[in-house]
Amino acid sequence: MQNMPLLTGVVCDTKYLKHETGNHPESAQRLTAIYTYLKTKGVHKSIKKIKPYPAPLDVIQYIHTQSYIDSVKSISTCGGGMLDLDTVVSPETYDTALLAAGGMLAAVDAVINGTVKNAFCLIRPPGHHALPERGMGFCIFNNIAIAARYIQKKYSLQRIAIVDWDVHHGNGTQFAFYSDPSVYYFSTHQFPHYPGTGNSGETGSNEGIGFTMNVPLLPGADIQAFEDAFEKHFIPAIKKFNPDFILISSGFDAHADDPLAQLYLQTEDYYLLTKLLISCAHDICNGRIVSTLEGGYNLDALKRSAHAHLSALMEA
Ligand SMILES: [Zn+2]
Questions:
Q1: Distance between alpha carbon 70 and the CA centroid of its chain, in Å?
Q2: 10 lies in a domain?
Q3: What is the CATH number of the domain that holds 166?
Q4: Which residues are 124's β-sheet partners?
Q5: Domain residue limits at 74
Q6: Contact of 259 with 216, CB cutoff 8 Å
Q7: How many Å lie between the centroid of ligand 1 and the Cα of residue 114?
Q8: Is 14 domain-assigned?
Q9: Ligand 1 centroid to 194 CA: how many Å?
Q10: Which of 58, 106, 215, 248 could in theory staple to 291 by disulfide, Cβ–Cβ 3.0 to 4.6 A?
Q11: 295 and 251 in contact (C-beta within 8 Å)?
């Protein structure tokens, strides 16, 4: 029997709709829009669906304190509440957030075990703002930071690059690895903007100096600015760092149509940026990429951009 070429894995599950946020930009409709659109595009026939599992508590603890984990659980159990002015916890949020982190773990497992070539996690709640003791900015558990530590601890792959092109700075992810030279965090984001961190002088601390790279962008920046950031700064640094795995915090809120920010990426630009990282991953880490959904709040732009990103991953 001939070996079939490996497909791209996609983590999707209607259980992710159960994190209910009410009238809120980070709504369940975001995933419904993407799932439906990918189906109309026929994508489900040429990807491998990955089933998520709830992340074990000891793995969540790689990044978060037990007291914070307990507090999310208790707010969920007691019917819900708010972690900050815009971060909603509903009765199903705790379980959904464990499944979000676990979705990334399942994707990492599938890539490392060789059942898929790369993977895209269509999960929520998002994660890159979440801090060890505090959720914020729509984020409960820091899915991508948890996944990075999981790769190191379970699979003994030591160097991880995280590329975050969400329009907001991933303060939680940066914080998790700020003094750690084994995880290199790269971010493009609108600046100044929420959450206020991410200026170019933030490059790490102690042993981690030189392993955080921020390219803040002014409102109005378009693909030219992103290409400059990637080609002149990120990709040469990634090549030098020589990671074993590349993770992407793939928010789609730098799209021109997004209501929460003022950058000007077009749908097809996500295809182009993905291609740049794929080529880099191909050269240095056997193409090992797991990407995860962060922001993106115009449903039409979101579903089309997610499709563009996935299309590039499928061509890898
Ligand atoms: Zn965002």
A1: 24
A2: no
A3: 3.40.800.20
A4: none
A5: 30-315
A6: no
A7: 31
A8: no
A9: 9
A10: 248
A11: yes
181 phi/psi in degrees, rounded to 5? -75, 0
CA distance linking residue 209 with residue 211, whole number of Å: 6
CA angle 31, 32, 34 (to 5 degrees): 65
With a CB cutoff of 8 Å and minimum separation 6, the contacts of 106 are 11, 50, 51, 52, 53
Give the C-alpha distances (Å, rounded to integers) separating 176 from 18, 133, 152, 166, 209.
27, 11, 14, 17, 14
- Which single residue is written with the structure tokens 């002014």? 218
300 CA distance to ligand 1 centroid (A)?
Answer: 16
Report the DSSP pairing between strands 212-217 and 183-190: parallel
Q: Is residue 300 part of a domain?
A: yes
Domain count, the chain: 1
73 CA to centre of ligand 1 in angstroms? 24
CA of 295 from ligand 1 middle (Å) equals: 4
Q: How far apart are CA 55 and CA 106, in angstroms?
A: 9
For residue 129, the CA-to-ligand 1 centroid distance in Å is: 9
Q: How far apart are the first and last CA of the chain?
A: 23
Residue at 225: amino acid letter: A
pLDDT per position as a tens digit, 77-136: 999 999 999 999 999 999 999 999 999 999 999 999 999 999 999 999 999 999 999 999
Could you report the per-residue pLDDT of 156-208, keeping only the tens digit for each? Answer: 999 999 999 999 999 999 999 999 999 999 999 999 999 999 999 999 999 99
Q: Phi, psi (5° rounding) for residue 165?
A: -105, 15
Question: What is the distance between the alpha carbons of residues 3 and 245, in angstroms, rounded to a whole number?
Answer: 24
Question: How far does residue 253's CA lie from ligand 1's centre (Å)?
Answer: 6
Query: CA–CA separation, 296 vs 307, rounded Å?
Result: 13
Residue 2 lies in a domain: no
SS3 312: helix
Please give the backbone phi and psi of residue 246, each rounded to the nearest 5 degrees, phi first: -115, 130
